[in-house]
Every structure is written in structure tokens, then in C-alpha cells.
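Running co-folding for inosinic acid.
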Amino acid sequence: MPPVTLYVATSNPGKLRDFAHAAANFPGIEILPLPNIAAIPAPAEDADTFLGNALIKARAYAQLASGEIVLADDSGISVPALDGAPGVRSARYADDEAFPGPGTTDERNLDCLLNRMAGQNDRRAAYECVLAAVRDGEVLATGTGRVEGQLLDQRQGEGGFGYDPIFLLPTLHLTMAEVDMQTRLSMSHRGRALVDLLGTLNPTP
Ligand code: IMP
């Protein structure tokens, strides 16, 4: 039987790598980037849940590939001590909070989170990812993945991106910015979301 191809609506090589690594355990599944994703304007990610935003993106980008299964994800970091913030607003946290300061968006977002966590005893945090698979407007499956961690009060490690330098993996005593690529891939919230989704995906048209 030919492999079932899932077209991921992202141009982020890190996300593609996470999905492809997880899919390697499913011989019948092939993960490819959705071509020509710049052909339509990026949809507004204005839902207040990860699932809502993943569905917005998957429905929008599925229009570029009629008859094909298109996957889209939404992800972020949720902090119980901040009532789940930054959550779906993870990529836009510093701007939302009008947090001043120099640096890239990722650096400012991280500084903003450090600032909001100052003096907090409950340091729990989780990376979350929700994935949606859509074909011709129909939602075929969804999946969720999580990684639990603890927030440090200063940066540690040079790798990764986003909030990784303060996201401690308690069992490893390392931040997500310090672990090697194989460890990172083996615990990716995106990879876990894909495995969850593939558990219920029925690709038969
Ligand atoms: P989006 O899924 O592309 O909308 O990105 C959500 C935001 O969540 C990113 O800009 C990062 O700030 C954060 N984020 C999601 N996954 C990770 C991760 O694996 N490491 C660090 N930050 C992440």
C-alpha cells in the first residue's frame, strides 16, 4: 500500500523535524511540508484555545491542497501560577503585556515570563501542542501532546529557541536549551501530538 502523505502547514524546519521524527515509528505515514504555503495570507490565530487555532490554520491551509490531508499545529507554554498564561499567546506575550526591552521577540517573551514569575513559588510549566488534520474542509482527527517542566529564574543553556533556556526538565536536571537533539526529539510535545493524532486518523476517503 502506498504511504499516506500528511502535508504539514509550516515553513518552520524545527517543527517539521519534530513531526518527521515521530512519524518514523509509523511506516505507512509520510510527512511533507505543504508546498506554497505563502500563497494565501496567514490566517489570524485569534482563538482562545490551542485547538481553536490549530483548526483555523488547518482549515485555511487545506484549501491549498484539494483532496490531501493537511496538518496544522498550535503550541505554547502554559503556566498554572499565571492562570495558564502565556498559553495561546506565547509567541506574542511581551507585546500583549506591553513589556519593554531590547532583543528579539523570543528574548523579550522570555524576559517577560521571568518578570511575571518573580517571587512565585509554584514554578510548574508545560509545553503544549494541539494538531488538527483537515481534508477538503473536513476535520479528520486532532491530537494533543504535553511536556511538563519547571521554570528557572534565569537562563541556562544556549540551544533551543523560545522559552527553552528557562524550561527545566526535572528528571534530567537540564533545561530544554541544554539537552541533545535526540533527547529533545524523543520528548517533543509536537511529536507526542502527532502520535496521538495518528492513533485516531482514518485516512480512507
Ligand atoms: P506557534 O506554535 O508557532 O504559534 O508558536 C508558539 C510559541 O510557543 C513559540 O513562538 C514559542 O514562544 C513557544 N513554543 C512552542 N513550542 C516551543 C518549544 O518547543 N520550545 C520553546 N518555545 C516553544
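Result summary
The chain has one domain: 4-198.
Strands lie at 4-8, 29-33, 69-78, 124-135, 138-151, 167-169, 174-175.
Job closed.
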